[in-house]
Inverse folding.
């Protein structure tokens, strides 16, 4: 029986010729990641394991991105634990405020993950790196500690669902609309324990930023990972984003699924038929097309995050906000994913467009997405957000609401003061 | 034996422990806010040995290990659901929160029922209703992990 992309990567890292769905394996890790929320408990567990040091100081990545710049004293203490550990263990890839970004925007940009890697991260959106043709999955702090100690982790080899993409997406349709459409179709546990493998002629029509957004939200369908094949765009991206430190230079390994790979389901997606899509509270599966949303007035718009905080997302928002004004009574918060994306916004004039439109341009942080800081909602308030979750209380008060959308719908909504169609501006 | 608190499908990690409290990983501190966004009295009512029974995909969302830590910190002896989100599933074993998968138990047990669980056999007994249900057995690898006392102990035993 043939193997899926995911199964091939796992087999190669477990020293096995063949693996099959359901098999338990132990795989070598290329990157082990944590942030300021999940890192401190992992560091505590790591100490309890009584090991000498981390398995490889070049392969551990620590990014204080959630409650940074430190939102309060307790958050500052957590960040301090992360910082002191990074210094004492000589972790090469610790990114301090000023050079950091939101972890899943930052790692691909820095060339720290490439095709063929196995990555675990103590953050559920670690699955983002599947866009590069890597196997990447979220785990908790204890698994992170064990990975940091041993360079290995156990996995149950996942079965897979294949999404056969065709067609070309419309003007204001991006990766976010495609993945919301898919989650709306299969549900928040539609890919539970499984891989989501995206293939077909439509892949070539999606930019790397689109693919990163889609792989990022595989977890929102319950998936273990999401993964794309490696093509010209992937290779070009990895070339442009090669890590400058030679000690961190990586070997790229592109894995293709076998012709007879087993998929539990194959779902055809015609990208040309997908409309701008919005997920209503309180689950990402509650999707409606922009044509079905009705009149939903809003208080806040958030554009950014590990899902939609990349260059193209900023460019899309800038195209729509250029020469226009954010509606009175609406707060529009834009936070680029990394310092580089921020700099690109300044260099290419997006920063000026945003500020003149009446939006606030904030530092790279996970803050608003999870109701941490820099954009928390009050009771009864509604936000349109390019983030990834709209659970009860996700962005603040338990009686607030989050509507998930792509940057085009979010920017159009900021101007109109209600959920709006970018085509109608 | 414990009293059952019952919740629906897709109970997510943001309601198990909202992100605003993730500035600590102390079990007692986290337990104070466990489930508060869907059941604000839970933390005050839950007694050691009580049981959570919920619908499918329990623990979906974030990778925060603070979620099973908060539930365990509240004194909950076991969570029963038809399915668990995969990161929560791993985290539960790693933090020592017992979880059981059972469609039948999740469907038939009601809030307030007194329930008894035998982890060795996976037998779930509903004292209130006089019914018994069977949980899915753990895969052998997971059983080995549990037997060695969780992942921290497993790593200790591996390093020799």
């Amino acid at each position: 029986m043939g193997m899926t992309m995911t199964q091939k990567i796992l087999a190669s890292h477990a020293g096995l010729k063949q693996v099959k769905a359901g098999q338990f394996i132990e795989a070598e890790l290329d990157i082990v990641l944590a942030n300021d929320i999940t890192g401190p408990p992992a560091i505590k567990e790591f100490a309890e394991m009584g090991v000498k040091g981390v398995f490889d100081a070049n392969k551990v990545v620590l990014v204080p991105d959630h409650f940074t710049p430190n939102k309060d004293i307790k958050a500052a203490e957590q960040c301090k634990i992360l910082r002191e550990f990074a210094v004492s263990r000589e972790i090469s890839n610790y990114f301090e405020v000023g050079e950091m970004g939101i972890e899943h925007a930052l790692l691909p940009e820095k060339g720290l993950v490439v095709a063929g890697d196995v990555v675990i991260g103590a953050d559920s959106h670690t699955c983002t790196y599947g866009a590069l043709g890597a196997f990447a999955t979220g785990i908790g702090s204890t698994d992170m500690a064990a990975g940091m100690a041993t360079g290995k982790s156990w996995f149950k080899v996942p079965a897979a669902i294949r999404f056969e993409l065709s067609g070309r997406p419309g003007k204001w349709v991006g990766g976010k609309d495609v993945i919301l459409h898919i989650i709306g179709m299969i549900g928040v546990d539609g890919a539970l324990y499984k891989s989501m493998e995206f293939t077909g002629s439509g892949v070539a029509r999606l930019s790397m930023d689109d693919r990163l957004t889609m792989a990022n939200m595989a977890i929102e369908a319950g998936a273990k990972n999401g993964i794309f094949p490696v093509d010209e765009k992937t290779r070009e991206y990895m070339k442009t984003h090669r890590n400058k430190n030679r000690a961190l230079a990586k070997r790229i390994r592109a894995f293709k699924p076998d012709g007879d790979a087993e998929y539990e389901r194959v779902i055809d997606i015609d990208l040309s038929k997908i409309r701008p899509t919005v997920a209503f509270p309180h689950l990402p599966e509650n999707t409606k097309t922009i044509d079905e949303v009705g009149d939903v007035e809003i208080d806040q718009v958030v554009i950014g995050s590990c899902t939609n905080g990349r260059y193209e997302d900023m460019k899309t928002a800038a195209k729509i906000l250029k020469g226009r004004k954010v509606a009175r009574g609406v707060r529009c918060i834009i936070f680029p994913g990394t310092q580089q994306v921020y700099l690109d916004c300044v260099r290419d004039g997006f920063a000026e467009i945003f500020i003149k439109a009446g939006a606030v341009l904030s530092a790279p942080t996970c803050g608003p997405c999870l109701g941490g800081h820099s954009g928390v909602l009050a009771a009864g308030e509604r936000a349109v957000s390019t983030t990834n979750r709209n659970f009860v209380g996700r962005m603040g008060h338990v009686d607030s609401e989050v509507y998930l959308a792509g940057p085009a719908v979010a920017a159009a909504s900021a101007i109109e003061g209600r959920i709006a169609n970018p085509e109608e501006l | 034996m414990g009293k059952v608190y019952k919740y629906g499908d897709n109970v997510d990690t943001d309601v198990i422990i909202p992100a605003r409290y993730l500035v600590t990983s102390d079990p007692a501190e986290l337990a104070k806010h466990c489930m508060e966004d869907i059941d604000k009295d839970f933390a005050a009512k839950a007694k050691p040995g009580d049981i959570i029974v919920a619908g499918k995909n329990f623990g979906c969302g974030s990778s925060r290990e603070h979620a099973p830590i908060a539930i365990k910190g509240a004194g909950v002896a076991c969570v029963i659901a038809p399915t668990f989100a995969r990161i929560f599933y791993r985290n539960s074993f790693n933090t020592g929160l017992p979880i059981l998968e059972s469609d039948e138990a999740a469907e038939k047990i009601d809030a307030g029922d007194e329930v008894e669980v035998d982890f060795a056999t996976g037998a779930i007994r509903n004292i209130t209703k006089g019914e018994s249900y069977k949980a899915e057995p753990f895969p052998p690898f997971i059983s080995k992990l549990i037997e060695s006392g969780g992942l921290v102990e497993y790593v200790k035993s591996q390093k020799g």
Summary: Chain B has a mean pLDDT of 93.
